[in-house]
Structure formats: structure tokens, C-alpha cells
Amino acid sequence: MTLQSSYGLELRRNRTLPQLRDLLSSESLNAKKLIQPIFVSESLKEREEMQSLPGVYRDSKESVLAQIEFDLKSGVKHFLLFLVPGTKSNDSIPKSFYESAIGGIKQRFPEIFLWLDTCLCSLTTHGHCGLLGKKGEIDNASSVVRLSDIALCYAQSGADGISPSDMMDGRVASHRKILDQNGFAHVPVMSYSTKFKSNFYGPFREAAESAPGHGDRSSYQIDVRNREDSILSSIRDAQEGADLLMVKPGITSIDLIQPIRDKTGLPVGAYQVSGEYASLAMLAQNGFCKFEDGLLETWNVFSRAGASYLITYAARRGKEIFS
Ligand code: PBG
User: In which family does this protein belong, per the annotation (predicted)?
Assistant: First the structure.
């Protein structure tokens, strides 16, 4: 299918596939509105369970296929894939790993909607989400070029949707442009549009091998104390052509979902991040609550707050928990 990209607002992008229509319907949250994150690591021979995230695995290109087969049977249609290359590089993209991992999944399961997270933190030697300049500062311009090249490689390999999580300025516009110019005008951009610097990403960074080697992410992720920046950041991504917006971490951002919806008119989802899932798992492991009850409580809160969709490590248990 080809879409004209010259009209500005491409509303048909979110209408074309049944999986997207289910994800973005105005119903309250339900199992069809959940997205399951998955990790594929190039250096793994066998899958390993994440200690801090019970029920979440780091997979090899091969072992992830059995996981997706299982998840499909549980009713999951949307996956958010994080690719962790075996070799770090600040100069090049591990194209063949990306192509084979994505291609392998989509050839086997054409019916899933596969989102790909674009960021540099799993790839760079320093673990920052952008490239560094001569003085060690984030170089926004070259970062956006590299990120867009990765987005194109993902789309060419079979990604259904692209999800930039790096928080560089201009990445959404540049993703949209490179996709449109290369025949991928139908591929939606789900932007991590309001992403805070947070203490809740710890378990993820272990899974994605993406902790910054020095410094922190406060020059590009939003300061939780700044409400104006957090809303402006989503408005800006909407103006640059994002199809779906997101707040992250979920539970610390629920007050922003409705204002962002009101100001942009776009669907706004939430990412229940690794630290949120791990906190509930730890409460449950210590006998303080039932894991499923804790999850359902938070999901009901996201629904009440107006989240259109939810990214959660427990998506594969969505049907069971909502029933
Ligand atoms: C990559 C990225 C992060 C998460 C999603 N994409 C980590 C970070 O910004 O350090 C966090 C997800 C989670 O904690 O579950 N930039």
C-alpha cells in the first residue's frame, strides 16, 4: 500500500491494519491494547530469564520465535522489539544482525505487528542514546542521522512500526522523512514523546546492556519537575508527524496523558517500564500483594487516566488478568 505523504496529517496510517485499529480504539484498556516488549541479544546462545523481571527473557534470534508463538496463543498481537548487538560501535550499524533478527520474526509471523525501538544506547560503547562530539557532549545532528538510518534499516527488514526512544531533537521529523522517501510512508511512528529521566529503567538497562558508562541522561530526557517541557515535548513530536504518542514511565506520568491528548488530539499510550513491573514483582515475592492484582490495579489506573494503549512486560498475561 502506498500513502501520499504530502498532505501533512496522514490519518490513514493508523487505520490501515486491524491490529492498529484494535490498539487505538476508544474503548478502555483491554488485552488488544497491550504491547509486549521482547529482547533479542546477538551474543546469546540460549535464552535467559531476567532475575529482576520474572517472566521476561532475553532471547536469541532463534529462541524468540518460540516465545512469540506462545504469546500469539495468549492473544498478543503487538510486540516492541529491542535488539542488542553483540559488538558495540559508535561508527556503524550492525545491519546483518538487524535484518536477520527482524526478517526471521516477520517471515515466521506475518500476522503480528512488530514495533522496533530506535535508540543508540545498546549500540554505543558509552551507552548514551546519542553520539558524542569531540568534547564528550551529545551531538544532536549526527545522532539523528544515525537513528534515522537505523529506522530505515528496520523498515527494510520488515518492521511494521518505528518507535524512537532516544529523545534527540528532530528525530521524529527525520524518521518520517527517511521512511517516506524510501517507500515506507505507511509505517507509523510511535514516539516516546514524553520520556522522563527516571530511576525506574534499571532492570531494562541490564537487559539491553545500555547503562551509560559515564554521566546520566539528564541533557536529553525530561526533568520530572518540569510540566511545561513534558507537555511541549509531546506537542513537538506531534507537529513533526508522530502517529502515536507515549508517556514514560507510566505511573509517574498519568497526570500528563489527558493534557497531551487534549493538546494534540493524538492517541497517547503509557509505558509501564521495567522498574514498575519489578516493583510489583518484588512486593508479590515478599508476600505483600498478588502480582496479578497489583498489575490489574495499575492497568485500571492507566485506563482511568485515558491511556489509549499500554506497553507492559505482562502483556502476555493480559487476557488472563483482564478476565
Ligand atoms: C532506550 C530505552 C530505555 C527504555 C526504553 N527504551 C532505557 C533508557 O532510556 O535508559 C526503558 C524501558 C524500561 O525501563 O522498561 N533509550
Answer: Belongs to the ALAD family.
Q: Which of 178-187, 189-198, 204-213, 247-256 has the lowest mean pLDDT?
A: 204-213
CA of 246 to the centre of ligand 1 (A): 13
Residue 26 is labelled as binding a ligand: no
Helix (H) or strand (E) holding 102: helix 95-108
Give the pLDDT confidence of 276-296 residue by residue, as tens digits. 999 999 999 999 999 999 999
CA-wise closest residue to 105 among 50, 174, 36, 49: 36
Question: What topology is assigned to 29-322 in CATH?
Answer: TIM Barrel (3.20.20)
Rounded distance between C-alpha atoms, residue 70 and residue 38, angstroms = 13
Q: Is 118 in the pocket of ligand 1 (CB under 6 A)?
A: no
Instruction: Give the position, in ligand 1's atom list, of the atom nearest the Cα of 277.
Output: 15
pTM of full prediction above 0.85: yes
What are the extents of the domains in the chain? 29-322
User: Stretch 32-59: mean pLDDT, rounded?
Assistant: 96
- Give the DSSP per-residue string, 87-155: S--SS---HHHHHHHHHHHHHH-TTSEEEEEE-STTTSSS--SS-B-TTS-B-HHHHHHHHHHHHHHHH
Catalytic residue check, 197? no
**Among residues 106, 248, 290, 319, which one is catalytic?**
248
**All three cell numbers of 107:** 517471515
* 115 CA to centre of ligand 1 in angstroms: 15
